[in-house]
Structures are given as C-alpha cells and as structure tokens.
C-alpha cells in the first residue's frame, strides 16, 4: 500500500471512530451507565497516554534526523528545524491554550489538539519534501501545545487537593518514561520499517486516544470545584504579545552563541522581546479578562514557586546537552553507549516522581524542595571539582543519577505548591505556565552553559566551538565544563535557600483534604498559612 493509501485509510478510520462515539454513548446511557466517567484514575490514564505519546514523538524524531537528512539530500542545520519548529510552536501556544482550557471545557481543547496532532503526523509521514515536513511538525507542535497545556490541569482537577502531589508525581514519571522510550521506539521503527513510520505510528495510537478521551473525560471538568459564573472572554492581544515576545526570546537564546551575543540580530530580538513583555504586563493589568492574571504573583507561593522552577531548570537542563559531548568526544564512548548511560539518570527521575508526590501530600513541600535542590547542587559541585578527562564511568553515572533524583524530589512538590495557591478555574493557564517556565529555562540553560564552556576553551587557545572538541583538546573542554557545573551548582544552592525561606503550608485537617464543592472558588492558599 502506498503512503497516500495509508493516510487515506487513517483519515477514514478517524472519521469513522468519531462518528461512532455518539452511538456508543447512547447505548451506554440506554444500559443505565453514566456517560460521564469520573473515576480519577481513568482520567489519569487517558491523559497519561497523550503525555507519553507527545514525549515519545519528540525523542523518536531526534533519532530519525540523520535518515531524514540523507533522504532529502539536505544538511543537519536545516533538518534540525523539525525539532526547533516543533519546540517553538509548543512554547508559543502553550500559555494561550491553557487559558483557553480555563474558558471552554478542557476536554474540547484536549481532543481538538489530538486531532491536529494526528493529522499533522499523517501529513509529516507522506511529506514529499523537507519544507512540507517542517510545516507539518510546526502544526503538530500546535496540537501538542493544546494537549500539554490542558493535560496536567485535567488530571489535578480530577483529584482531591489531598492527592494533588500524588497525581503530579505519577504524571512526572509518565513524562520521564516517554523520554526514555522515545529514542528506543524511533530506532526500532527506523531499523524495521522506515523513518516515515516515526510519524505514522502516531496515527493509530492517536485515534484510539481520541476515542478514549471523548468517552472518559468530562466536558464540565473546568468548573469542578468552582462557581458557575459568566464565561470570561479570551484575551487575543495578550496571547499575541506573549507569543511573539516568547518566540523572539527563545530564538535569541538559542542562536546567541552561534551568531554572537552582541550581534545586531540577537540584540534587536532581545530588546524587542523585552519591550513586548513590558507592553504585555501593562495590558494584562488593565484588561478585564487577562490571559494570565499577573496579580497571582502577589501570592508568595506562586511568585517564589515560579522563580524556583526557573532556577531549577536553569541550573540543570544544560547537562543533558553537554554531557553527551563529554562522553563521546572526550571519553570516546559510542552514541549507542551514551544513550544507554543517559537512561539511568532518567530512571532515577521516574522512580522519585511518585515518591515525592506521596511525601508532598503527607508532609508538605519545604523539606522535599530544599532537599531536592540540595542533592542536585551537591552532584554539580562534585562535577565542578572532580570531573576530569579520565573520570570513571561509575562516578559520572552516580552523580547524574543523584542530580536526577534531586530534580524528581523537587519538581512535584514545587508544582503542587504553585497550583495549591490558585483557584481551580486557573489550573489550565497556571499549569501551562509551569511548563512554559521549564521550556524557557531549558533553552536559557543550554545557552549560558555553552557560552561558559566555549569562552573557557577560547581563553586556553582552543577554537571556541563545541565542534572543535576532541581528545586532543580535552583539558580545555573539561575546564569549561568544570566552570559551567560550578555556576549551575551555585544556582541550585541559591534555589535551596530560597525554597527554605519560602516556608511551608499549615497541615490540613481531614475535612480540608476533600475536593472543593461547587461554588467554592477560593484557592487552597486561602486555607493555608506560610510559616
């Protein structure tokens, strides 16, 4: 069967499946079953499939880049726009889609996002040229933003406040598992079939997920625990201002090292981004229905939690970019071996996510956030002082796992503290904000750490570029790594101090641990006391 035939078959199955949903629901109602399935674990499982698929898709495409480059006779910088365009689309549309999910039923945005994701995956699979393929990935990124921007909010809306940490912890494990599985799935599909199947595989799984989502998710989850008031309007100007500002910021951060931080393009983009951000803040404080309620940052838990989230990823994300260079070009491990080595730290994150979630619900967030950032800081300080061009693999893996475990202990309680301080009607935009902070900090972390490394290399008479890294210049490169890890370790240590200062919630009585009933719009923060 041709690719065109496969895509037509997929579209037909999608249309057929969607057409069958009303009949299925009618028969369920006729048998006395409930059309709304409110079991929290069914909701979690449905969202988990979408989150897992979205993350796996990203990892699979990374593995397929060399084959795509060869197939279209292109070059790697051009092919990398498959990844860059996808990531930018997610970042730009994440916040507006989360806010839209707070205005209209999240289920509608989530399902529509999956339909876009599936159709774009099919288009990517049959793309006749690289331009079409990149366009398809950008469109798929928009769909992924709708999925990610409403997935976490849907999960925590289905769980009582007393189990929020547990839900977030399991969701973190799902995302981390997808990051592990992505490269493996991509490698298998490319070896067994063809690079196009990295995209085609999303079609049948996505269709099943759409059907399950329509049947399981409730259309009124957005108002669970909140008063039914007049529906607010969507802030289109705020969405445009924030999206363009974020796009310029990410492009500047991602290309500053290559084009030069003082180049007219980078400085112009940065100045424009700051100007748009200021206009965005001015507008959001005046509009009746803002996209992001900036007054939420007057709440200590929200402001300090968001800042800690940015610091945590700023001080950790660059390691996933720089360590493969070290392992391959200094210690001379094969790409396959490096992939296996990097799985172990990811497994530490998978394991600690649920544990930190349960502990958060029981003991609060202060000890876990301070301890998590502290462990991560210790790992990076060890690299800053002990990492050499001949360090043992046991030491490297041990420190990477310690840092990942620290991040696993930190992320869930920190996000729980932020979401616990806002109304349930703001879960969509605030949960999107936490993910947007992560994405922005990831890009900034890589940019800063890479600049530290290449400047150090240049100061020691080596070409200031990661492309120049070989065993012959290992001393200069490792010296740059030591300085980068020292900087990241200090950032995380500062974050641990801030986390301690932020305080802790008051222990809840049993009656306060129940989910809020209809008409209770007050945030959990109104019931908590920072001590």
Structural class: mainly alpha
CATH architectural label of the largest domain: Up-down Bundle
CATH topology of the largest domain: Growth Hormone, Chain: A
Q: Whole-Å distance between the termini?
A: 66 Å
Which of globular, elongated, flat, extended, rod-shaped describes the shape?
Answer: globular
Mean pLDDT over the residues: 79
CATH superfamily of the largest domain: MFS general substrate transporter like domains
The figure for the number of domains is 2
Could you tell me the radius of gyration in angstroms?
A: 23 Å
- Outline the low-pLDDT stretches: 1-37, 221-227, 506-531
**Strand residue content:** under 5%
Biggest β-sheet description: none
CATH class bucket of the largest domain: Mainly Alpha
What share of the residues lie within helices?
Answer: over 70%
Tell how many strands the DSSP assignment holds: 0
SSE pattern, N- to C-terminal: HHHHHHHHHHHHHHHHHH
- Helical element count? 18
Topology, please?
Blueprint: H1 3-30, H2 40-71, H3 76-79, H4 81-103, H5 106-125, H6 130-158, H7 164-192, H8 197-200, H9 202-216, H10 236-259, H11 264-284, H12 300-314, H13 319-330, H14 335-363, H15 366-386, H16 393-419, H17 427-459, H18 474-502
Helix pairs in contact: 1-5, 1-9, 2-6, 2-7, 2-9, 4-5, 4-6, 4-10, 4-17, 5-6, 5-9, 6-17, 7-14, 7-16, 10-11, 10-17, 12-16, 12-17, 12-18, 13-14, 13-18, 14-16, 15-16, 15-18, 17-18
């Amino acid at each position: 069967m041709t690719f065109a035939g496969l895509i037509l078959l997929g579209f037909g199955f999608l249309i057929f499946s969607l057409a069958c949903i009303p009949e299925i629901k009618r028969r369920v109602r006729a048998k006395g079953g409930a059309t709304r399935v409110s079991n929290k674990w069914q909701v979690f499982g449905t969202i988990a499939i979408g989150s897992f698929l979205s993350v796996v898709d990203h990892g699979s495409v990374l593995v397929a880049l060399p084959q795509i480059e060869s197939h279209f006779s292109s070059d790697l910088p051009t092919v990398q726009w498959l990844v860059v365009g996808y990531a930018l689309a997610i970042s730009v549309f994440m916040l507006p889609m989360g806010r839209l999910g707070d205005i209209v039923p999240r289920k509608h945005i989530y399902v529509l996002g999956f339909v876009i994701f599936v159709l774009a995956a099919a288009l990517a699979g049959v793309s006749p040229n690289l331009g079409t393929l990149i366009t398809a990935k950008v469109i798929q990124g928009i769909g992924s933003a709708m999925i990610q921007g409403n997935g976490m909010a849907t999960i925590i809306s289905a769980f009582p406040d007393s189990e929020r940490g547990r839900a977030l912890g399991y969701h973190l494990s799902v995302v981390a598992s997808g990051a592990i599985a992505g490269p493996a799935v991509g490698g298998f599909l490319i070896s067994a079939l063809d690079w196009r199947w990295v995209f085609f595989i999303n079609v049948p799984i996505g269709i099943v997920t759409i059907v399950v989502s329509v049947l399981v998710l409730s259309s009124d989850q957005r108002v669970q625990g909140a008063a039914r008031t007049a529906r607010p309007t969507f802030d289109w100007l705020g969405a445009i201002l924030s999206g363009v500002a974020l796009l310029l910021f990410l492009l500047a951060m991602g290309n500053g090292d290559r084009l030069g931080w003082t180049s007219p393009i980078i400085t112009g983009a940065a100045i424009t981004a700051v100007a748009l951000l200021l206009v965005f803040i001015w507008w959001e404080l005046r509009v009746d229905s803002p996209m992001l309620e900036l007054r939420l940052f007057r709440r200590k838990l929200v402001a300090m939690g968001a800042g800690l989230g940015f610091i945590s990823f700023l001080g950790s994300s660059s390691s996933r970019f720089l360590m493969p260079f070290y392992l391959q070009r200094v210690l001379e491990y094969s790409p396959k071996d490096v992939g296996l080595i990097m799985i172990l730290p990811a497994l530490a994150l998978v394991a600690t996510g649920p544990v930190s979630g349960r502990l958060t619900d029981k003991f609060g967030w202060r000890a876990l956030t301070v301890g998590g950032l502290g462990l991560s800081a210790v790992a990076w300080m060890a690299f800053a002082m002990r990492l050499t061009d001949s360090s043992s693999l046991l030491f490297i893996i041990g420190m990477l796992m310690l840092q990942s475990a620290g991040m696993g202990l930190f992320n869930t309680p920190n996000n729980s503290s932020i979401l616990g301080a806002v109304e349930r009607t703001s879960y969509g935009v605030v949960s999107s904000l936490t993910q947007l902070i992560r994405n922005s900090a990831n890009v900034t972390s890589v940019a800063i750490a890479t600049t530290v490394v290449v400047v150090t290399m240049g100061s020691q008479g080596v070409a200031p570029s990661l492309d120049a890294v070989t065993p012959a210049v290992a001393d200069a490169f490792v010296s740059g790594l030591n300085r980068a890890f020292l900087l990241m370790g200090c950032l995380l240590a500062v974050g641990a101090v801030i986390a301690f200062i932020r305080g802790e919630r008051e222990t809840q009585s049993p009656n306060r641990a129940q989910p809020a009933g209809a008409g209770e719009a007050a945030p959990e923060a109104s019931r908590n006391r920072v001590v």
